[in-house]
User: What shape does this take?
Amino acid sequence: MWKFIHQLASPPHFYRIAPAFIRWLAVPGLLLIAYGTYAGLFVAPMDYQQGDAFRIIYIHVPSAYLSMMAYMIMAVSAGIGLIWRIKLSHAVAAAAAPLGAWFTFLALATGSIWGKPMWGTWWEWGDPRLTSELIMLFLYFGYMALRGAIDDTAKADKASAVLALVGAVNVPIIHFSVEWWSSLHQGPTIIKEGGPAMDAAMLYPLLAMILGFTLVFGALLLRRVRAEVLYRERRTRWVKEMILAGGN
Amino acid sequence: MDALSMGGYGAYVWTCYALGAGVLVVCEWRARLRHRRVYREIEVRIKALGDNQ
Assistant: This one.
């Protein structure tokens, strides 16, 4: 196991094996999303309070979950890179940031669109869930801006790692905000005492969407890490040899 | 028609699904573009070094 992890952390080895992992993640991920979309839109019964508007949950929840998971991947990878100086860790952190920002944007946009017919407003500044999620989008922007502002990759890695670690405090705040403070946002639906508060016909498509989005996110992350590794290793012999040999 | 109107919430529901699909496509496209750009830059640099030697 340790040998496998050690090998995986080697940039040339990672670069070579990543495409296979991308396929293994993307294909089942897309199939699950296709099933979840169909079942969520056309099979799941409509909610007795929200009507068909509840079907937004099948996009909103996976994207909100991934917005937080991407941040944790970024912060943990940055921390590992900072402490153990593993090259690949900083590449993972750098690659996770733009993806996290996109999924945070998606969570905010779909939440806002869902909020309009349900709450009567696109946005509520006093709401802790909405505001903490928006802060996370700004943390992603700050992380990417900081990286972009420092030319030296090693210095950019260190500075941005500190920001990523400090900002990680926002993740539990987002998650527990609906329990700690009064919020327009509904409480936990899936992970709660007494089991999920959803009918199985509504729950299974949601679980499929969450798993599907996660697998596709994994594939996207690997694709981005691969590009990041190539950039960071651009002056090494293995990259030169690979390109001269016409490899990709 | 019922599926399209989504009980009067069609504009909200379909916009969210379109955004979801859009984000996945954009993320994939940008990841591929970034890789292609980096690869091309290295290829050009290697070629330039080869020409100078």
User: Anything to note?
Assistant: Chain B has one domain: 2-52.
